[in-house]
Amino acid sequence: MRFPRTFFPALAAILTLAAAPIHAVTEDINSPHGRLRVEVDTSDGLTLRAWLDGRVVLEPAPLRLNLSDGRSLGTDASTMTLSRRRNRGVVTPVIKQKSATIPDNFNEATFTSAEFSVAVRVYDDGLAYRFSTTLGGTIEVTGEAVPLAFPAGTRTLFPEEESFMSHNERSYLDFELADITSPRFASLPVLCTTPAGIRVVFTDADLFDYPGMFVRGTGGSVLTPTFPPYPLEIVPAENGTSDRNVEIKQVGDFIARTSGTRSFPWRTYVVTDDDRDLITSQLVFLLSRECELADTSWIKPGTVAWDWYNANNLIGVDFESGINNDTYKFYIDFAARFGINYVILDEGWSAATTNLFEPNPDIDVPELVAYGAARNVGIILWSLNEPLAKDRDALLDLYASWGVKGVKIDFMQRNDQLMVNFYHDTAVAAAARHLLVDYHGAFKPSGLRRAYPNVISYEGVKGNENNKWSADVTPEHNVTIPFIRMVAGPMDYTPGAMVNTHPANHRISHFRPMGIGTRCHEIAKYMVYESALQMYCELPSLYLKEVESITFMASIPTVWDETRVIEASVGDYVVIARRHGDTWYLGAMTDDAAREFSLPLEFIGPGEFEATIMQDGVNAAKHAEDYRQVKQTVDADTTLSLRLVGNGGWAAILRPVE
């Protein structure tokens, strides 16, 4: 049994050493704990390599930023100066996605020339570097060289893409790097595992006014960066989906047109030989710019009842269910009964998907807002990105005047520079009107949520909605994404299915979708998956038949004061403990293998707790909906025994005994 490590961050301390000419051919930057070592070689331009405890993480490879005028920044390091910085501090996030405070401890070296600098920063759980330029005017960037050279025999879980036009909802495919040839490519984050067992999750952070990166195979142990080109002409699609799909008719021979004086995104590597660290890492958040909002008191994380997954298909009611006021009042009453904070009006609430100013004739948004407000339930409206972008200020003004709490924006499905800027500009406009933003059909988080914490969640993950048209969301997939996709930030997976099946019994149904895995596998997602806006995807009519399950799930918070990962293995299992206030929330999930765990509760602190436990039932291996709720009194000397069937799960809430 491995026990979670704890740490006691020091008071903030920054030590900066003045810039000096580089005399050595190589410069080392070590992590605060000394295990991770990064070497920057300046003898033939800038190259970078890294080791963990003496084991190779990255082989030597160049750092370059290439411009359209032919310059390749980083090629000549002969006149660069070096400065070093040591930071020991604590960050307090607006949204407590993993914890109430975050240690911000790193060592940094900055290599500076007349036109640009490169900062290399090393944390205990990873490393990152970024270019900054002082060129003035406007520049065009054509590409980068990024150190992604791994030891021979490295394997990867590769979220392979077919096009830059993508919702980035991918499965993670297991390959040896050498088997991935060009032009095959993947979105980020991507996980690589060296022959020595070192995990590297590569992604980006502080992404602003620049395209998102993808990585391409080379047929060797090296990945190369690739980017969506800069769009010069965008037209509506001609395939009958012009409301949500576009065609890029013309692109530039560059990836970004931007200010010549700026900092570029951090190229970010989470590095560990302990899978638990992949879930607790907050590197992407720490590397991103600080909050831009003076007042964040209005930003309220919470839970939300969602209609689209279940097709508004209510049963046992005395009205015709559908996209109408009666149906949404039923959703609001359901939400109010169980303390759910929001209800989403998804596609269909408006007069047309391209007319977001008027509700359809059966919907009265102000009436629903008032009905919800009287019951402490807020309303969130869905929209497509293209119609919203055309009339953003007028639409957001209207929604704010109605009293709506947020917008769920869908079908961006690009991350070229123009689309990255759409995310930013929409976050700014929404914040000015005190509106939350949930991006669907979206790329993964890359730092915007720290600058604008009203960006409450992102999709960019293959989640429960896929059950309506595929069998891809398997328990193995479910215990893979916390270690890769969730490294980037919150993921709006939309859990909560109550029609639970094992893979052999799964059937595709648009109107009655089935979740793959046991009931307790589904419930544990609320402990394991991070999203400050967490959805309940199932039909309220089914939740009302499963009151014990929804009562338990609806009492789980969406933000956390503390996170501890007890046991974890990528693609196999996870056992996690999270604290909110003085209450602990424990969850466990497994793939298709039955597993048992011993869970000592020494971390819960003094006193007795009442544990409410949801566990796989005696017959859950045959019938996925079989579960049992048990209660017992526990304390820090208690060790819980967890028994999970294949595709199973386990969850518990530990409340202090008064």
TrEMBL record:
Gene Ontology MF terms: carbohydrate binding; hydrolase activity, acting on glycosyl bonds
Domain Glycosyl-hydrolase 97 C-terminal oligomerisation: residue ranges: 559-654
Entry annotated with the keyword Signal: yes
Pfam (any one): GH97_C
InterPro entries: Aldolase_TIM, GH, GH-type_carb-bd, GH97_C, GH97_catalytic, GH97_N, Glyco_hydro_b, Glycosyl_hydrolase_97
Cleavable signal peptide: 1-24
Statement: the UniProt record of this protein carries the keyword Magnesium: no
Domain called Glycosyl-hydrolase 97 N-terminal: residue spans: 29-288
Keywords: Glycosidase, Hydrolase, Signal
All copies of domain Glycosyl-hydrolase 97 catalytic, residue ranges: 308-461
Protein's name according to its UniProt entry: Glycoside hydrolase family 97 protein
Native source species: Synoicihabitans lomoniglobus
